[in-house]
Amino acid sequence: MKADKINLLMLFVLFSINTKIFADSPLTSTPYSAAYGNEYIIIIASETNGLLTTDLMNFLADETQPIALKMAVINELGWEVKGKNNASIFFDHLKQNNGYRNENHFLRTEKGYELLCFAYLMAMDNYFNVDNAIDYAEKALQKNPESFTFNLITAIIKAQKAMNSDWCEVYRIADKVRKNISLIRDMNDEAVKIIFDYISLYKKYC
């Protein structure tokens, strides 16, 4: 009986440590939506308890809206340890309005901004497992390789996965984007600063 209690205690401690580590991570510790806090859509997103609404989904699916602001909306919706379901809700919205039959059909779309929104939502929904989110982000990036925002969001999702094995890589992945002067800087400087105030903490592991 004592051994069972000790084993249960050890499992609880390990789970608590793991949760704390991942609650302090590239996806969960870069609240850069604050850099867009005066935008009406961010104010709306701040009032939905982290849930997608029809208005927010219409904004994310609007081709005319800036990609950095769309990412800021998703960032504002945030994350939860127990997980969320915003990506599935968004995909159902896209299927209904854009005629996507399934995810394979969706992957062939030319609308990279939809793919990136879906990838970031997926990553924020379940930041413990971002493999599928990385696949979608890379597909999105292929369609918009010149965008700083596309590159950086993809890097943040990849950096989240790197947390499992190489903390120096967390820094390198994002820093490579920051140093790429050929990219179109379509994210505001304050947002970039917020992101790298956190990401730069990993430089010491290199």
Q: Could you characterize the architecture of this molecule?
A:
- This protein has helices spanning 2-22, 40-45, 54-60, 67-77, 86-98, 103-107, 112-125, 131-143, 148-162, 167-178, 189-199.
- By secondary structure, it is mainly alpha-helical.
- Residues 1-22 have low confidence and may be disordered.
- The protein has one domain (28-205).
- 62% of the residues lie in helices and 0% in strands.
- 36% of the residues are buried.
- The protein starts with a helix and ends in a 7-residue tail after the last helix.
- The protein contains eleven helices and no strands.
Characterize this entry briefly.
The protein has 206 residues and is mostly helical.
Count of DSSP E strands? 0
Q: Oligomeric form of this entry?
A: single chain
Shape summary: globular
What portion of residues is helical? 55-70%
- Average pLDDT, all residues: 88
The ordered H/E elements are HHHHHHHHHHH
Q: Which properties best describe this structure?
A:
206 residues, mainly alpha, globular, disordered N terminus
Per-chain topology:
Elements: H1 2-22, H2 40-45, H3 54-60, H4 67-77, H5 86-98, H6 103-107, H7 112-125, H8 131-143, H9 148-162, H10 167-178, H11 189-199
Helix pairs in contact: 4-7, 5-7, 7-8, 7-9, 8-9, 9-10
